[in-house]
Amino acid sequence: MLSDFKGADKVYIACGYTDLRKGIDGLALLVRQEFNLDPFTNTLFLFCGRRRDRIKGLYWEGNGFVLVYKRLEEGVYQWPRSESEVRQITPQQYRWLMEGLKVEQPKAHRPVEGLSIA
């Protein structure tokens, strides 16, 4: 489900460690108080624990929250640990993360903006 999740308009990841013992209410409170974001939007919020082999996803489905928990049997997520903040990621970065890659791929082609024919 998480590998091909396309229901959300935005995806945010909580950089650093999150205590994955938190449930829906605790994670929603973290989103609202720590990150100043509204958990009641069409947004997927992702959290990763210290071991990096499991993540939780929190998603508002219009009439209730969905809490998704995924544990990898082998390997770890390449989760950003340098900051204790929330970061919005692109659909491509989300795919990289779910495939076991880092969200920052320095060799990836970047979109070019602001070009015009004069």
- How much beta, percentage-wise? 15-25%
Task: Name the shape in a single word.
Answer: globular
According to DSSP, the number of beta strands is: 5
**Structural class, please?**
alpha+beta
The CA-CA distance between the termini, in Å, is 46 Å
Q: List SSEs in N-to-C order.
A: EHEEEEH
Number of domains: 1
Alpha plus pi helix count: 2
What profile does the largest beta sheet have? 5 strands, mixed
Report the average pLDDT across residues. 85
Rg over CA atoms: 15 Å
Spatial strand arrangement across the major sheet = 4-3-2-1-5
Unreliable stretches covering 5 or more consecutive residues: none
Portion in helices: 10-25%
Would you give an account of this structure?
By secondary structure, this protein is α+β, with helices and mostly antiparallel strands. It has one domain. It is 15% helix and 25% strand. It is built from 2 helices and 5 strands; from the N terminus they run E-H-E-E-E-E-H. It has helices at residues 24-33, 91-98, and strands spanning 10-14, 43-48, 54-60, 65-71, 86-89. A 5-stranded mixed β-sheet has the order 4-3-2-1-5. Strand 2 and strand 3 (54-60) form a beta hairpin. It is globular and about 55 Å long. It starts with 9 loop residues before the first strand and ends in a 20-residue tail after the last helix. The mean pLDDT is 85.
